[in-house]
Amino acid sequence: MIQAEGLTKVYQMGESEVRALDGASFTIGKGEMVSIMGPSGSGKSTLMSIIGCLDVPTSGQYSLDGVSVESLGERGLAEVRGRKIGFVFQQFNLLARTSALENVMLPLTYAGYSGREREKRAFAALERVGLGDRTHHAPNELSGGQQQRVAIARAIVNEPTILLADEPTGALDSKTGVEIMDLFQSLHRDSGQTVILVTHDAYVARHTDRIIRISDGRIVSDDINPNPIKAGTAREE
Amino acid sequence: MLFSENFKIALRALRANKMRSVLTILGIVIGVATVVALLSIGNGATASITSSIQSGGSNLLTVSPGRLQMGMASMGQSQQMSHLYYNDFELLERTLTGRAESVVPVYQSSYQVTFGDESFSTTVSGVVEEHAQVRSFSLADGRFISEGDNKSHLRVAVLGDTVATDLFGSFSPIGKTISINGVKFEVVGLLESKGAGLGSPDDIIFVPIETGYSKLFGDTANYNGRKTVNNILVSVTETGEMDTVSAQIAYILRRAHELKPSEEQDFNVLSQTDTLATLNSVTQTLTIFLGAIAGISLLVGGIGIMNIMLVSVTERTKEIGLRKAVGATKNQILTQFLIETVTLSLLGGIVGILLGVGIATAFSVMGLISSVITVDSILMAFLFALAIGVFFGLYPALRAASLHPMVALRYE
Ligand SMILES: Nc1ncnc2c1ncn2[C@@H]1O[C@H](COP(=O)(O)OP(=O)(O)O)[C@@H](O)[C@H]1O
Ligand SMILES: [Mg+2]
Would you say residue A129 lies in a domain? Predict the structure, then answer.
């Protein structure tokens, strides 16, 4: 359960200040699949970083499963990131010269799992995203879509309750993008995780059950999408 | 998170920039190698000097010209300013009977020696018969300079081990005629080697001092028409009387040199213990001096490592952001980067130790100084490298650990 009330984020740029978020309020229930849409610079990434506990708001309340984030220290935030949240980025952000398996093991390392347990779980996560046969490939030996799958495996390996994806299809061609959306939908269906994804592509957004639009740091609309597209079915436009 | 995992991450990061890593640790390698080589060679030198001085006898007093200055300067005291005379020797020999077992004069200088095609410059020492006993020389072959040689001004010579090898190779030199500064001498004896070290006779050719004065040394051995000597060696009968005899020598020579009470001595009397103390202070000064150089090199090496680690932290900003996004705490990032720096410096330390041991061993093999490699010096170098790693790694690691996760992730 994600509850946000009047979230504001102000960046100080010398004399001037940038209001990246300006009083955003919303609630996202457990197991929802939501997309956040908006033009470039509207504050989507800033919002995601607050939802994902990478950053704290300048003002406003944000609580995760009833726990207010302000009350958590630096260490507490790191723990929430490690246990409750899985991140997927536009640029994959995999460690270079490091095998897919080791990349996926990374969150488990910080969470303190034993070596054997880590390997087992990381392998299962890679199987889940369809890369069971690419465990020892380094990122530069994988296609863009495969790299994003590794990143998704890394995001789900800790079995987080919330999966956050900031423009996960932004660096991929449309066909591969659809495959990734298919993966998100099936992860959402199978494990009931809350999935929040940022996109500026309306077609991608229509794969989710709810679409929040944001502009200049404010939420301008928040609608239920009654007929989400099932990924892989023919595009009708 | 375990040390071994951090270590693996560190090795991967270092391997990704092999050349850079190698260049970075060079400062540490040189510093540590210097420390290890220096300590080993220093230990060896001290040991060999000490043993060669002690083998000279603990009852030996050496009288030399010049004013005594302690420390470094005493090595190169100005000998031309003051002189010891052959008369001084005769005077001491006369007056010290009973207290001294023997009193012997030494005049030495460097000359060109030739045998066949071999020719080089070496020290030629004019001595008397008792010299061998005073200095505890042993003969490998033939005989030492005799009283008769001196009386009759015979042109005979006794060779140190190294000189003999250089001139004759493995052949026996006995009975051969060598030329010293163009004057022919017959080799009558060969000394046993005493090994490299101060006061070792290995590089010296001994001739009768009287022959030397009349046929070899020429005018350089004269000052104001009097024959000069470089040293007078006095072997004291009772070791307990060293100080008394030393004072007596000083008294006799002051009078002989007609020094006023206010004037400083123009000679000095040193026992083996004094010589050892002087030498030790010299070695200590040298060790401190070279140690300081090694220390500076380590410092520069450490700064180099810190610089590269700061570059590395900047380059890997995004990676750090990602690690934080997947749950790494501040401490975990700090530990990771600290271990990376320590790995670098320890790698440098290990290579440096190997290099230092290699240099020290090379010194031994080449016969320059038999270096003594101690566990102490290796351990010290290792701990030094470790300390450098921790000290200079702390700041870059703190920088990495305190990066804001979101700012780090957005970094391009
Ligand atoms: N660290 C920062 N410092 C200053 N301004 C920033 C910073 N991060 C983001 N911004 C500004 O905040 C606004 C929102 O950025 P962002 O959340 O990245 O937008 P989006 O992801 O929707 O493109 C932009 O105007 C951006 O320039
Ligand atoms: Mg963005």
Answer: yes
A215: domain CATH number is 3.40.50.300
Ligand 1 within 6 A of CB of A44:
yes
CB contact under 8 A, A97 and B405: no
Range of the domain at A101: 31-40+78-224
Give tens-digit pLDDT for A36-72.
999 999 999 999 999 999 999 999 999 999 999 888 9
| Tens of pLDDT, residues B129-188 | 999 988 888 899 999 999 999 999 999 999 999 999 999 998 999 999 999 999 999 999
Q: Are A93 and B404 in contact (CB < 8 Å)?
A: no
Backbone conformation region of residue B226, classed left if phi is above 0, alpha if psi is from -120 to 50, else beta: beta
Out of B16, B328, B406, the one facing A55 most closely (by C-beta) is B406
Please choose, from the candidates A233, A230, A228, the residue with its C-alpha nearest in 3D space to the C-alpha of residue A35: A228
Q: Bridge partners of B222?
A: B227
Q: Is the CB of A42 under 6 A from ligand 1?
A: yes
Q: Which residue type sits at B334?
A: L
- Out of A11, A167, A197, give the residue to mutate to test ligand 1, the one with the largest number of ligand atoms within 8 Å of its CB: A11
pTM of the shown model: 0.73
* DSSP calls for A183-203: HHHHHHHHH--EEEEEES-HH
CB atoms within 10 A of CB A31: 14
Q: How far is CA A64 from the centre of its chain?
A: 15
